[in-house]
Specification:
5-stranded mixed β-sheet, alpha/beta, Rossmann fold, 15 strands, globular, homotetramer
Chain lengths: ~400, ~400, ~400, ~400
């Protein structure tokens, strides 16, 4: 399906990542945003608040807090809207219970987290990348989500569209993991014409009321939804529920439901994985990175190459589900890894796990507050090239 | 230091794990509990509410929700109390922001999570073990905590004392990760005399006001505290702060503070690790387990041994920090692993990572709602013994 | 019915009015108190919190705010308890919605307001008597309540018992209008033996389920209640409801219900009125007063009598419903009035209205923060005696 | 000062009273509305939410509840806006604490209460007039406000302008007491050109910082304000405060401040009173009424006149301060009163008080849910004419 032109600001713009993210959401068909302002994510909702009156059917509501925001969007989705909420670290922590609910009742929606330095209040105006594991594991119980990390304002636009599309495709909350640098950096953002933007429609059932079971999955493990007002009845509960949506609190239904919720993403992972590889083929060392750090890594790679080291990059675009298979392949080819990220080890652990001890995995990490020092990353590349041999 | 006899219910009791956890807290010197009732953890606070009027200085307060509970205890700690809060999955998710705060400002306190089936509301009255990764990664930003998992009412008592002790030793929030089975199972619990119970006192500074810096670490990376009312001044903020506790929002202070917060646990990990090994020495397969599942695993191991398989067990008592070094040693000795846990893979990933591809790691997981089927675990042991060869 | 000895602290005590109020509540059978601390009322709940563990079935809960407190007690009443909440001005304002609910669904319960200087935060530690009209008119819509004003610690005990008794008799919320002086003043309080204290039991229906209609009034306009757990079904709603308790939103049911709610108090008023008269018979001037001011007025009256003025006092004990008939009788006998109260005119207006222009009505008012100046009241008495002639 | 044309929708419209009230607010310069939707007032804020993006500087915010709404507007006023909140009975009860604050710190602002049947949830969609005494007495402590009651959509526009003007003139919260009928009735509303609408500007001080005292009154008892950002410092507290705005918690400051707050309205009352008289001069009976009931009363009067009774009407436009002097004059001329209002006696008591027993005062009251029966009012007029003679 093509994008609705009403939400598409076609043209060439100079804007920051927060604003571009908002435009991506609008282009993807997002028509409901609930949020509570928090630096450095506020510009996303500020822009949506201003744009909403100009886009038919678009609503912005500032809620009293992040708990309210993260549930308001789910109500909007059941009412037929595409919806997102937007926050940063401390607010993201407050949303954890409702992210689990969204996963449990399979609400397609997008959570934007513009990462700043943490933990706690930390560094409100400075960058971080240390909410990556939280995005995957922050709510209680087993579930799976999708997480995406853009590294430029243009990607904030493009991938916001993809975030909504994946969310609809798999009926799963998608975490849009920006960082303060990408959010506040201004660059050229080209927004194509509406008929050049592919938008995934909601998966509406074709079954009539009576035959339709709201939580009975299709072959791809995803159940269909329905249009509110079309005469279907729905019972939505965070309790373990059967195909009808009614509570059925026993181990069998738990297995049937929760196992499917994790398999829905795990078994479809090869279709969801997305990464960019640069000069990987001939590389002895592969730098794994994402978000703003991937742009610093490019400089460090250039520096290391000047020193004669064969180094390439694997940039994660979809971070969760994690492309463990590709890491294993590269490890099998003897490539050492440097994981460059703005934390003291998060995705690093996933690379280490996926490499299965076949090659060294080094961390080029720091606590945030600024981007990496290029020399420090280059130095890790040198180290990796040495411990490999 | 020995336990204060006023909180110690010396004797041999028949009680469930929830009640035993409460008695352990009292024995450890816990004198402030704030909580909001949630199945299957409610009996912990119910008992504390009844016991509090009988123990001098003990206070229980039912707060309006889990957010309030998780901050009330931190106020109590600054006021000089040992404190804990108690919850289950959905409430635990609501506490995530304040767990990060406790880590950031180094408040010694205990969070009890009696795990039930999740995600979301899930199975309120039935067991789960799927909050294990959340315990480690649930709040935004980088930090480290300690997590402990008891597998009997007696351990609920013993390890609750240890939880408070470790919390004081490292000024870190400790997650006490029970499960519904351990919480509601009744067994004999022997509570020793007070002078047989070792209690770690708060690390009070010996420096006078003026010389004392509240966030300047000792050699073990842990700073000292002071007694409220003794004339010290304190500024506590979740913002990145310097030794004085004042906000200093720049990358250098971030590195100094947050790197220390993670190293405080990582570098001291060998002193914190705690696990039980059974028949590991001659084993070809090692079952890694914890909590109630470790007791089912023992049965499965017996079954497998009858079939002639050499299988032992490594039971995690302290789960976080994770004993990766021990796993690596065992993997190096060629032992295959079966990770038995009540989820679809959490600690499994840590074992897989730590084994570095040296031996197979299999998951015996299920979604909760009941304990494992013994045959299913035994079957995994058989599989592991086969894929090893 | 006689008081339950378990709640009765028989003996001669030296205590302040706040503590005496708490003992009166306990003697009356109050077994549930919910509150949020606020000066100068906090001592009432502090005492109840300490006394509750010693009185079987007694529960104190500190709620997160006054809104929660004022609804928690109503839940307790439906569950079979006698209950009260305790507050001061700002908290009383927050309770207004729930006072209307209590009136609408006829919940017997007691609201204690220890008045301080207002409006707004005003004078937290100093006395006032300016919530008297709010007690009567503070919630939206038409309703009637009973309000009582004690003028000594002994009366805080005695009238607290009466407050509960009237509340049960008429199924109406009773406002217990203390003031900071009476609340914090210490005097001898004699608590009789339990079998000397008359306690009004809850009016339980004798009809079986099926025949019983929870909002069908008896001849005295008051419907009967039932014991929770005895098999009756109840629907309680603040919406206009019929005898069954079901919403019936039309003018006829509104008339049937709301007219009865006001008539329940207005028509029974002669049985509820309660005042003390001193030297009124031969008086030319009658001082109308209540609470702490009545004790200052006694001094002023003595002073005026020394000057040869024939002056008496009518002290309001039950303030609402207002004894307009008695005021009219006295006015008919040509007696002038001085209304002494710690505000700029509240009960004054009721006296003025009730006197029907037959005699002068003067206000001896001030804004609170301290008790009246005796001379100022005496001077008003002189004035009144002059304008009368 | 003339109205800012940007907010004035000049022209002849067909709209209901809720919408007209919104337009009146905009014409008066209101540029900030905070509210929480509640029937039958929701249309006021719905319209403001739609109109705000079209009027420069206008902001609407939906708050999480009425407590938040009633304080948000006060923040906006201190920031330089004219502001109002909008609600109905239950929400009005929740605003009581903040109405007292507004009175205490002299915030010019408007509270719209579109009255429905009460008490409690009552009759959400049907009319009532039983919040009239609450408007005057609903918050704790002594204070005075202004209350206005429109009886048509046109008046909803006109008097909303006046409400803002009076609010600015006297720095006092103004209660705009509509009812469901007036709010939902559609009629022609003529909005004049902006230069025909008189708007009272905020009373800004002409004194420089340093000389200016924010709570020192002018001769008319009203202090001046200042423009935020112009370099003045302000301490605003609900505590009893001195001319500087600092807490001064003693009886003298209480007298100085609170006595002025009530006198500010009482002594200026003759300038504020506003009522409409019809055929009063030759009348034996005067019907006192307001809001929608005044329009029913006109029919009843016509009916009674046909029966030969000389009857006129006094319609209250400003209800508080109450025009007691005018009632006394009319009573002195021997005119009997019928008070027609949609409650069981509220303004009736004020008329009774003001008439000083000189003539009979009858109540034509009912509990709401529909307008009065014309015959019933006419019958009361007949009664009044008889008991007069």
């Amino acid at each position: 399906m093509k994008a609705d032109p009403k939400g598409v600001l076609t043209g060439s713009h100079f804007m920051d990542g927060d604003h571009a993210c908002c435009e991506g959401a609008l282009a993807a068909g997002c028509r409901f945003v609930a949020g509570y302002p928090i630096t450095p994510s506020t510009e996303v909702v500020e822009r949506f608040a201003r744009r909403a009156p100009l886009v038919e059917g678009a609503i912005f509501i500032q809620m009293e807090d992040e708990i309210a925001s993260s549930i308001a969007i789910q109500g909007a989705v059941w009412g037929g809207k595409k919806a997102m909420t937007v926050t940063s670290g401390p607010g993201f922590s407050l949303m954890m219970e409702h992210i689990g609910l969204a996963a449990m009742v399979e609400v397609p929606c997008v959570f934007v987290d513009v990462q700043r330095g943490g933990p706690s209040t930390g560094l409100p105006t400075l960058p971080g990348q240390a909410d990556m594991m939280q995005a995957r594991w922050g709510s209680h119980g087993d579930y799976e989500i999708i997480a995406i990390s853009p590294n430029s304002p243009q990607e904030c636009f493009n991938l916001a569209v993809d975030a909504f599309n994946l969310s609809e495709q798999y009926r799963v909350p998608v975490m849009f993991m920006m960082d303060e640098c990408v959010g506040h950096m201004m660059e050229r953002v080209v927004i194509p014409e509406a008929d050049k933007i592919e938008v995934t429609p909601r998966r509406y059932t074709t079954l009539p009321p009576g035959q339709y079971l709201p939580f009975k999955p299709n072959e791809d493990l995803v159940p269909d939804m329905f249009k509110a007002g079309d005469g279907y009845r729905l019972h939505v509960t965070g309790l373990t529920h059967d195909f009808r949506g009614y509570p059925a609190m026993n181990p069998d239904t738990q297995e049937e439901l929760v196992h499917r919720l994790v398999d829905k993403i795990r078994l479809n992972a090869p279709k969801i994985w997305r990464y960019e590889e640069i000069d990987v083929k001939d590389a002895d060392v592969v730098v794994v990175s994402y978000g703003i750090t991937s742009r610093v890594a490019v400089e460090a790679i250039a520096l290391a190459r000047k020193k004669g080291i064969k180094v390439g990059m694997l940039r994660l675009i979809v971070v969760w589900p994690f492309p463990e298979q590709r890491i294993l392949e590269l490890a099998g080819q003897g490539k050492a890894f440097v994981v460059a990220e703005m934390n003291y080890g998060q995705i690093f652990y996933e690379v280490e796990r996926s490499a299965r001890g076949k090659t060294p995995v080094l961390l080029a990490g720091h606590g945030g507050g600024t981007v990496h020092n290029i020399d420090a990353v280059a130095q890790k590349i040198v180290e990796a090239s040495q411990c490999r041999s």
